[in-house]
C-alpha cells in the first residue's frame, strides 16, 4: 500500500483549460509540454522535491549489531526523526553514503520518503496583540509593576500601547522601532503569554489610489468604432481595430474593458515590451486602480507567484502584461486586448516554446470563449489578410482624436546634400534648420537611428580587413564610451584598434552609424543644446529608461537620440520634430519582412510628432528618395503597402500564403555541420520535395562558436496538411537527435519565425 504523504496544493494551480492550452502550444510549435510548462509557470510555483530518510518506528532491532557509522545516523534520526541526504552526508563527513543507507534499509531501520515542497514564500507581516487577560485594568496595572524589573520588556509594552491607540493594528517591526527594543524583548513577552503574535499574509504590491479618476467622452468617430467592435464581436471572436496613431485606441479599450468588468469578467491586456510602456500603465491605473495588475518577466519569482494566485482566484480583474502573461490562470476571461499587435516582441525566440503571444492569445480566446481585440496603426500583414478574408472582424478608425493633423513628412536626399556639400556629418541642412526652428520655439526633437554603438564597421583602407568577433561571424561595433569593440550577439569585447591587425596599416575607416555617434556629433554641432540618448546601452539599469523619459517630459532634454525605443510609449505634446537619420539600412535589411517592418517602424516613430494641438514634422533622410516604402510612408498609405507586399509574398512563397518552419542546425565543427545538415535536408526532401529549402548559412553563420545551417520548409497551407508535415518533421527531429552520428549537434525548430 502507498500512503498519501501530503497534499501539495489544496487547490489546483492551473485550470483544466490551461493544460489543454499548453498541449495546443506544444503541438503547434513542435516542442514538449514540459517546455511550455516551464515558460508558463513562475518558478516559485514549480515544486522542489527532496529525498528524506525517516526512522522506521515500527521495527525493533538489536542495536548491538550496528556499526559506528550506522549508530551515528540512528542517533541523529532519533533526535530529528528525519534527515535529508545532504544532512546525513554532513554528519558522516563522507561522500558515498549510499552503501550505508542500503544496509540500513535492508535491516528495516529506515525508510525513504519523498518530500515535495513549495518554493513560493508568501510575504508575511508579524502582528502583535495583547492577551485579553490584560484588558482588565487591575491585571494590566499588576503587569506594569512586574515588568519594572525588565525595563526593555516594559518599553516594548508601552510602545505597543501607543501604537495600538494610533493605528489599531500593531506590527512587530513597529514596536521594535517605536520602543527602541530588540526582538528578544518581544519574544520574552510572547513566551510569557503577554503578547500574542500572528503572521498575516500580505501583498507584495502596493495598492493604488484611483480617487483622481477623470472621465472622458468618446468622440463621434471613436464611438462609432466602439459600436462596430461590439457588433463585430457578436459574430467574430477576433476583431482587428486598425486605428492610426493618436486616434485614441486606448480610450476605446478602456470603454470596452469597463463593459467586461461590469459583466464580472477578467481582462487581459497584452503590450509589447512592458518596460517601455510606463505611461500606458499609468493611464490605465487612473481608470481601474487596484483592479489592474502588471505582469512581466522583470518581477521576481515570489511576486510572479503572488500575481498567479490572484488571477487564479479571480481576485485580480485586469492583467496588463508582456507576452508571458498569456499563460496566467484566468478563471473567467472575457476579453483579450493585444495592443500594437504587429510588434515582433510578442514572439519568443529562445528558449522553446517559440510562440507568438498574439497568435496564442487568439487560440486561448477561442478555448475559453473570450473575445480578442487586436489593435494597431500598422497591422501585421498576416493579421490584415485574416481581417480582409473575413476570419477576423475589421474596424477602422482613420482620424486622429481632436482633429490633430498627421505630421507633415519631408524626404531629404542624402546624395544631393552631399553632392552640394550642404550636410554636416550625418545631418542634412534641412534637418539642422528644422532643429533650430523647433528649439527656438521651445519645442522638442527626437532623432531616430536604428543602430546602437558608435560605428558598426571598421575597415582597413589598405587591405580591406574588418575586425570580427572571435565567437561569431559578425563585424564588431565600436563603442566610444567604453573605447572598445563590442559584439552585439555574444557580448564579446576587445580594445579598439589604431592599426590593422592584418597588415599594420594605420588607415582605418569607420563605416556606418550608431546612436552614440549621432549623439556625439550633434553635441559638437549644437554645444548649448541638452542632448540625451536612449538605447539598450543607456537603459540597462532597472529605472534608467523611466528617468530619461521623465527628464524629457520635464524638458530637461531638448533632443532625444535613440533606437526603436523612442518609438514606443511616448505621448508628449511638446515633441514637434522627428528626424530619421538614415532610413535605408532598415529598408535594405535582407529579410522578407523588411519593407513591412520599415513601414511599421517609421510610421510609429513619425506618430510621436505633434499630438493634440500642434501639427508635427518628420524628416526622413535617405539615399533612395524614390523607394516605394518611403513614398508609402509619406502618403501614410498602409493599404498601398499591403497590396504591393502581398504580390511579392505570394510570388516568393511567404506568409500569409505559405507557412514557414525554420530549422536551425548548430554545431561547433563546421565540416561536420555541413554534412549533417545536408543529410537532414535530404531526408526531409525525400518526403516533402521542393517544400524544403537549404541547407544554407543564415545572415550570421556563426554565433557563440556554433556554426549554423538553416533549412526552411514552406507549406502551402491551403492545399497541404500542415499537421501531417509537422508530425513528419517531429519524427525526423527525434530520429536525428537519437542518431550517434549527430552527436554535438543541436536542432532548433521555429514555427512561424519572425
Ligand atoms: P493611440 O493609442 O491610438 O495612438 P491614444 O489613445 O494614445 O491614441 O490617444 C492620443 C491622445 O489623445 C492621448 O493623449 C489621449 O489621452 C487623447 N484622447 C484620445 N481620445 C480621447 C477622448 N475621447 N477624450 C480625451 N482625450 C482623448
Ligand atoms: Zn589592413
Ligand atoms: Zn560574438
From TrEMBL:
<dbReference type="InterPro" id="IPR001650">
    <property type="entry name" value="Helicase_C-like"/>
</dbReference>
<dbReference type="GO" id="GO:0003677">
    <property type="term" value="F:DNA binding"/>
</dbReference>
<keyword id="KW-0347">Helicase</keyword>
<keyword id="KW-0479">Metal-binding</keyword>
<dbReference type="GO" id="GO:0005524">
    <property type="term" value="F:ATP binding"/>
</dbReference>
<keyword id="KW-0235">DNA replication</keyword>
<dbReference type="Pfam" id="PF18319">
    <property type="entry name" value="Zn_ribbon_PriA"/>
</dbReference>
<dbReference type="Pfam" id="PF00271">
    <property type="entry name" value="Helicase_C"/>
</dbReference>
<keyword id="KW-0378">Hydrolase</keyword>
<feature type="domain" description="Helicase ATP-binding">
    <location>
        <begin position="230"/>
        <end position="397"/>
    </location>
</feature>
<dbReference type="InterPro" id="IPR014001">
    <property type="entry name" value="Helicase_ATP-bd"/>
</dbReference>
<comment type="function">
    <text>Initiates the restart of stalled replication forks, which reloads the replicative helicase on sites other than the origin of replication. Recognizes and binds to abandoned replication forks and remodels them to uncover a helicase loading site. Promotes assembly of the primosome at these replication forks.</text>
</comment>
<comment type="similarity">
    <text>Belongs to the helicase family. PriA subfamily.</text>
</comment>
<dbReference type="Pfam" id="PF00270">
    <property type="entry name" value="DEAD"/>
</dbReference>
<dbReference type="GO" id="GO:0016887">
    <property type="term" value="F:ATP hydrolysis activity"/>
</dbReference>
<feature type="binding site">
    <location>
        <position position="472"/>
    </location>
    <ligand>
        <name>Zn(2+) 2</name>
    </ligand>
</feature>
<keyword id="KW-0547">Nucleotide-binding</keyword>
<feature type="binding site">
    <location>
        <position position="487"/>
    </location>
    <ligand>
        <name>Zn(2+) 2</name>
    </ligand>
</feature>
<feature type="binding site">
    <location>
        <position position="469"/>
    </location>
    <ligand>
        <name>Zn(2+) 2</name>
    </ligand>
</feature>
<dbReference type="Pfam" id="PF18074">
    <property type="entry name" value="PriA_C"/>
</dbReference>
<feature type="binding site">
    <location>
        <position position="490"/>
    </location>
    <ligand>
        <name>Zn(2+) 2</name>
    </ligand>
</feature>
<dbReference type="GO" id="GO:0006302">
    <property type="term" value="P:double-strand break repair"/>
</dbReference>
<feature type="binding site">
    <location>
        <position position="463"/>
    </location>
    <ligand>
        <name>Zn(2+) 1</name>
    </ligand>
</feature>
<dbReference type="InterPro" id="IPR040498">
    <property type="entry name" value="PriA_CRR"/>
</dbReference>
<dbReference type="GO" id="GO:0006270">
    <property type="term" value="P:DNA replication initiation"/>
</dbReference>
<dbReference type="InterPro" id="IPR042115">
    <property type="entry name" value="PriA_3primeBD_sf"/>
</dbReference>
<dbReference type="GO" id="GO:0043138">
    <property type="term" value="F:3'-5' DNA helicase activity"/>
</dbReference>
<dbReference type="InterPro" id="IPR005259">
    <property type="entry name" value="PriA"/>
</dbReference>
<keyword id="KW-0639">Primosome</keyword>
<feature type="domain" description="Helicase C-terminal">
    <location>
        <begin position="492"/>
        <end position="649"/>
    </location>
</feature>
<keyword id="KW-0067">ATP-binding</keyword>
<dbReference type="InterPro" id="IPR011545">
    <property type="entry name" value="DEAD/DEAH_box_helicase_dom"/>
</dbReference>
<dbReference type="InterPro" id="IPR041236">
    <property type="entry name" value="PriA_C"/>
</dbReference>
<comment type="subunit">
    <text>Component of the replication restart primosome.</text>
</comment>
<keyword id="KW-0862">Zinc</keyword>
<dbReference type="GO" id="GO:1990077">
    <property type="term" value="C:primosome complex"/>
</dbReference>
<feature type="binding site">
    <location>
        <position position="500"/>
    </location>
    <ligand>
        <name>Zn(2+) 1</name>
    </ligand>
</feature>
<keyword id="KW-0238">DNA-binding</keyword>
<dbReference type="GO" id="GO:0006269">
    <property type="term" value="P:DNA replication, synthesis of primer"/>
</dbReference>
<dbReference type="InterPro" id="IPR041222">
    <property type="entry name" value="PriA_3primeBD"/>
</dbReference>
<dbReference type="InterPro" id="IPR027417">
    <property type="entry name" value="P-loop_NTPase"/>
</dbReference>
<protein>
    <recommendedName>
        <fullName>Replication restart protein PriA</fullName>
        <ecNumber>5.6.2.4</ecNumber>
    </recommendedName>
</protein>
Amino acid at each position: 500500500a502507498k500512503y498519501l504523504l501530503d497534499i501539495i496544493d489544496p487547490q489546483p494551480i492551473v485550470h483544466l483549460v490551461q493544460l489543454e492550452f499548453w498541449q495546443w502550444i506544444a503541438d503547434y510549435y513542435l516542442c514538449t509540454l514540459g517546455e511550455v510548462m516551464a515558460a508558463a509557470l513562475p518558478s516559485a510555483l514549480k515544486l522542489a522535491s527532496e529525498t528524506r530518510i525517516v526512522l522506521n518506528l515500527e521495527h525493533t532491532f538489536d542495536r548491538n549489531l550496528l556499526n559506528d557509522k550506522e549508530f551515528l545516523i540512528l542517533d541523529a534520526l532519533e533526535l530529528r526523526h528525519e534527515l535529508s541526504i545532504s544532512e546525513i552526508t554532513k554528519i558522516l563527513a563522507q561522500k558515498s553514503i549510499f552503501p550505508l543507507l542500503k544496509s540500513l534499509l535492508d535491516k528495516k531501520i529506515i525508510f525513504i520518503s519523498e518530500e515535495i515542497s513549495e518554493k513560493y514564500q508568501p510575504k508575511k507581516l508579524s502582528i502583535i496583540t495583547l492577551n485579553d487577560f490584560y484588558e482588565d485594568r487591575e491585571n494590566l496595572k499588576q503587569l506594569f509593576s512586574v515588568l519594572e524589573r525588565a525595563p526593555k520588556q516594559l518599553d516594548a509594552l508601552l510602545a505597543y500601547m501607543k501604537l495600538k491607540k494610533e493605528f489599531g493594528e500593531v506590527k512587530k517591526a513597529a514596536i521594535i522601532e517605536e520602543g527602541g527594543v530588540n526582538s528578544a524583548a518581544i519574544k520574552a513577552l510572547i513566551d510569557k503569554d503577554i503578547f500574542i503574535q500572528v503572521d498575516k499574509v500580505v501583498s507584495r504590491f502596493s495598492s493604488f489610489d484611483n480617487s483622481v479618476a477623470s472621465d472622458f467622452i468618446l468622440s463621434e468617430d471613436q464611438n462609432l468604432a466602439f459600436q462596430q467592435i461590439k457588433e463585430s464581436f457578436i459574430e467574430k471572436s477576433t476583431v482587428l481595430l486598425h486605428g492610426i496613431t493618436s486616434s485614441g485606441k486606448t480610450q476605446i479599450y478602456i470603454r470596452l474593458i469597463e463593459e467586461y468588468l461590469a459583466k464580472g469578467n477578467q481582462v487581459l491586456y497584452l503590450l509589447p515590451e512592458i518596460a517601455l510602456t510606463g505611461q500606458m500603465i499609468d493611464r490605465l491605473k487612473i481608470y481601474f486602480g487596484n483592479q489592474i495588475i502588471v505582469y512581466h518577466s522583470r518581477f521576481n519569482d515570489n511576486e510572479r507567484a503572488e500575481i498567479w494566485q490572484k488571477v487564479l482566484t479571480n481576485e485580480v480583474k485586469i492583467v496588463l502584461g508582456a507576452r508571458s502573461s498569456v499563460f496566467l490562470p484566468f478563471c473567467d476571461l472575457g476579453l483579450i486586448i493585444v495592443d500594437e499587435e504587429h510588434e515582433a516582441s510578442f514572439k519568443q525566440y529562445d528558449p522553446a516554446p517559440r510562440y507568438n503571444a498574439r497568435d496564442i492569445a487568439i487560440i486561448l480566446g477561442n478555448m475559453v470563449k473570450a473575445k480578442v481585440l487586436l489593435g494597431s496603426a500598422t497591422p501585421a500583414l498576416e493579421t490584415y489578410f485574416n481581417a480582409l478574408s473575413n476570419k477576423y472582424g475589421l474596424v477602422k478608425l482613420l482620424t486622429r482624436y481632436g482633429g490633430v493633423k498627421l505630421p507633415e513628412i519631408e524626404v531629404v536626399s542624402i546624395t544631393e546634400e552631399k553632392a552640394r556639400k550642404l550636410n554636416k556629418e550625418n545631418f542634412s541642412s534641412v534637418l539642422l534648420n528644422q532643429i533650430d526652428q523647433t528649439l527656438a520655439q521651445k519645442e522638442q526633437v527626437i532623432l531616430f537611428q536604428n543602430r546602437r554603438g558608435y560605428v558598426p564597421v571598421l575597415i582597413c583602407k589598405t587591405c580591406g580587413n574588418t575586425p570580427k568577433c572571435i565567437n561569431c561571424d559578425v563585424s564588431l561595433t565600436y563603442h566610444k564610451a567604453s573605447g572598445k569593440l563590442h559584439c552585439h550577439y555574444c557580448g564579446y569585447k576587445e580594445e579598439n584598434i589604431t592599426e590593422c591587425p592584418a597588415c599594420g596599416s594605420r588607415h582605418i575607416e569607420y563605416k556606418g552609424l550608431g546612436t552614440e555617434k549621432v549623439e556625439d556629433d550633434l553635441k559638437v554641432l549644437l554645444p548649448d543644446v541638452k542632448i540625451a540618448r536612449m538605447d539598450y546601452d543607456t537603459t540597462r539599469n532597472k529605472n534608467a529608461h523611466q528617468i530619461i523619459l521623465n527628464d524629457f517630459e520635464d524638458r530637461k532634454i531638448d533632443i532625444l537620440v535613440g533606437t526603436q525605443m523612442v518609438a514606443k510609449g511616448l505621448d508628449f505634446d511638446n515633441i514637434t520634430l522627428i528626424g530619421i537619420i538614415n532610413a535605408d539600412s532598415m529598408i535594405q535589411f535582407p529579410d522578407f519582412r523588411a519593407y513591412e517592418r520599415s513601414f511599421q517602424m517609421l510610421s510609429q516613430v513619425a506618430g510621436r510628432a505633434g499630438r493634440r494641438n500642434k501639427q508635427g514634422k518628420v524628416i526622413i533622410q535617405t539615399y533612395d528618395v524614390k523607394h516605394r516604402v518611403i513614398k508609402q510612408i509619406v502618403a501614410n498609405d498602409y493599404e498601398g503597402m499591403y497590396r504591393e507586399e502581398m504580390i511579392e509574398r505570394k510570388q516568393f512563397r511567404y506568409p500569409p500564403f505559405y507557412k514557414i518552419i525554420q530549422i536551425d542546425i548548430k554545431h561547433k565543427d563546421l565540416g561536420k555541420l555541413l554534412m549533417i545538415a545536408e543529410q537532414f535536408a535530404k531526408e526531409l526532401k525525400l518526403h516533402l520535395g521542393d517544400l524544403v529549402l537549404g541547407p544554407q548559412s543564415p545572415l550570421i553563420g556563426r554565433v557563440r562558436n556554433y556554426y549554423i545551417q538553416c533549412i526552411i520548409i514552406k507549406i502551402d497551407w491551403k492545399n497541404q496538411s500542415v499537421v501531417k508535415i509537422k508530425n513528419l518533421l517531429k519524427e525526423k527531429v527525434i530520429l536525428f537527435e537519437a542518431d550517434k552520428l549527430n552527436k554535438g549537434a543541436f536542432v532548433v525548430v521555429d514555427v512561424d519565425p519572425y
